[in-house]
Amino acid sequence: MRPRWNGGPAEIVLVRHGHSVGNLADSRARESGAERLDLDARDADVELSDTGQAQADALGAWLGRAGQDALPTVVISSPYRRAAETARRVVADHDLDLVLDERLRERDLGVFDGLTGRGIKAKYPEEAERRVKLGKFYYQPPSGESWADVVLRVRSLLDDLRHGYDDARIWLFSHQAVISSFRYVLEGISEEELLEIDRSTPIPNASFTTYRRQGDSFELDSFADTTAVDKADVEVTEQPRHDGDQETDRAATEAQ
Length: 256
Hints:
Elements: E1 11-16, H1 21-32, H2 50-66, E2 74-77, H3 81-90, E3 98-100, H4 117-123, H5 125-134, H6 147-161, E4 169-174, H7 176-187, H8 191-200, E5 208-214, E6 217-225, H9 227-231, H10 248-251
Parallel strand pairs: 1-4, 2-3, 2-4
Antiparallel strand pairs: 1-5, 5-6
Helix pairs in contact: 2-3, 4-5, 6-7, 7-8
């Protein structure tokens, strides 16, 4: 069941961070068949790649052309570097304050952080099997979070946005699994529907997903929209699909 709103924001725009050096390291690890990404930084400190910077700048330029009515009135970002850097570049030419909120951080992969699917299967074969049995939504990696845990964070943030933000246009800069979790909450979809969306529709870097409040609920206006990047003739990047590989290949990259 989707939440009902007596007030609150008029619009919520979810922006995925630009392409990161973590995404780049993941692509290289997959090409070489490595078990671990060649990446020294902790997940929170992974920065944007050159492509990611160009994507963020493209989104900022698009926002500048969109007019005053499209500008956010509130900007909130995950504190993770790649998301916060994306947000800062997007709003650089506008007089907007940026608030960091840890509830928008990416899903914590625990001991799987930095491993490819091949690495997870090699080092934690029993966990790979447990993930298949429990399913992606409820599976919690050792020392990490399930998608259900992320959903609880999303519900908490949305509850705060119910108060004091009437008719605001709120932009939230975050990560792939978190944006998917917003769909689960705002649309009241099922676990099965969420996972089908995740399988069938990637969320590209620097794409935006827009909700507009209609009466007492939010309605999806656009999903994984790359218009800003397309118009700037900048490369569109997204996570690869790994169908038939017990879903563990994507575990190591959901947080990148």
